[in-house]
Write a structure and sequence with these properties.
By secondary structure, the protein is of the alpha/beta class. It has 8 helices and 7 strands. The longest helix has 17 residues, at 142-158.
């Protein structure tokens, strides 16, 4: 699985996650951001075209060296400074209460200790700092949720540790955030077991 995880999966995700519908969602998630932003799971830089000009610097957290390499062309096309600041969202080598906003797009599903990662995001945000996110997770329909539980053990091996059954909204609120806006829906074009989506903005309370 090492070669697949390190060499193949990043290239697959770069293509699969760059479809038109996903780009529209990324644009909504990045809207209204400004100042210095922490991005958890920077990946191949697919959010770069959607960051507003008011974003001055992105502190990027990304464990995959190949993803960082694939992101270079997108970074070069942007005027926003990008600094790689760590490999793991569970332990951020960043000062507390220093950032105006944080972003996560389809990342919380893959972090082994998602509670620790959310605690770290909250720690590095200033009081009133905003967490912009889109994630897939636990569906409200019982039949879909049953299939999520069935498929998850195998899917985690195929998709780099991706969990499809995490209750994203609850996890964010339990981490000490106040939900400002939350839209939940099945993403168009996605199988329902993978496509139940949580899109929103939460504030450090």
């Amino acid at each position: 699985m090492g070669i697949y995880r390190d060499r193949v999966l990043p290239r697959l995700q770069d293509k699969v996650m760059d479809r038109p519908d996903s780009r529209d969602i990324r644009a909504r998630v990045c809207a209204g951001l400004s100042g210095e932003v922490v991005e958890i799971g920077f990946g191949t830089g697919l959010n770069m075209p959607h960051y507003p000009a008011d974003v001055t610097r992105i502190a990027a957290v990304e464990p995959s060296a190949l993803c960082v390499r694939l992101a270079q062309s997108r970074i070069a096309e942007s005027t926003t400074e990008v600094s790689l600041v760590g490999l793991s969202g569970e332990s951020l080598a960043l000062p507390s209460a220093a950032y105006e906003a944080a972003v996560s797009t389809w990342t919380l599903c893959t972090i082994p200790d998602v509670e620790a990662a959310l605690a770290e995001v909250r720690r590095v945000l200033r009081p009133g700092g905003r967490f912009h996110f889109v994630e897939h997770g636990h569906a409200p329909d019982p039949a879909v949720a049953r299939w999520q539980r069935r498929i998850e053990p195998v899917w985690k091996r195929v998709a780099g540790g991706c969990h499809v059954s995490r209750p994203i909204g609850e996890l964010i609120e339990r981490a000490g955030f106040r939900m400002e806006a939350l839209d939940t829906y099945y993403q168009d074009g996605e199988p329902r077991v993978f496509g139940y989506t949580f899109e929103g903005v939460a504030t450090k309370s």
